[in-house]
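Morning run. Coffee first, then this:
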Amino acid sequence: MPSSKYHPYSSSNTSESIASSTSALDHSNLLTQLGLVFDPHYKLLYCITCQSAWIPTAIPGHLAQIHKTRLNAQQKANLDAAVQFYGVTTSNRIVPTSDLAIDGLKLYLDAYLCIACDYACLQRTSLMTHFSNHHKANSAKGESQYTRGPVQTFFNPVPLRYFRVCLPEQHDQSLFDIFMAKEEPKLIKDHSVSPQNAREIPPMLACTQWHLHLEHYLDNRDAREKLCKMFTPYPISQGNALWEMTWKYLETIRNLSNDTSMRCRILLNECPR
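And here it is:
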């Protein structure tokens, strides 16, 4: 009988698997806290807020100078461990392997593209200077020296190398528009169905028990309309106290959110409640 250490479900292998997954989760949480995201294709770390790539040695300085987040010794050690775990590249000479726009990088929609080479930039004067220095044999003048289109750059501000990208195809109608045009008219109007079993009750509804409190109204259209009229707010012009209170609440929330840390805002964007 083979030794247990060779068995795929042995306790030692299971412990190693759990430790590995825990380590991966810790590294992922650290990047989220620092406002970073890892691109497994290019092996780069992107700043979520700035939408640009940073080599590992430049990240602490970038976070401190731009985002006012200073890393302590333990956080720097954890970041180094995450960089090693993911195999993040230390090179800033990255060449895109596709002409598709890269998620995580800022998109510049109306850049200047040289007609004679792959050079691209955001300023017309820069393009014309490039054309004059590198394409003297080309007779193109003025606006014929370039076209306009979308570009991206991995690093910003250094090194700044823009490359051309293609945007995904835009459809005139979304799936929701198609559904509303073709399927919505077939639906039964003003029809409410009570949950038939516990699996049809969402967790929040199960906590509030509103489906039980309003059971009488679910299958009674007239009763539902009367209930809705009870909660119809007065127009704003009439000095609606509820509206004024709501407005003050939203203002307070806005002011409080503006004072929160970058980590908190990133968490709220990624995990809305």
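The radius of gyration is 28 Å. Good start to the day.
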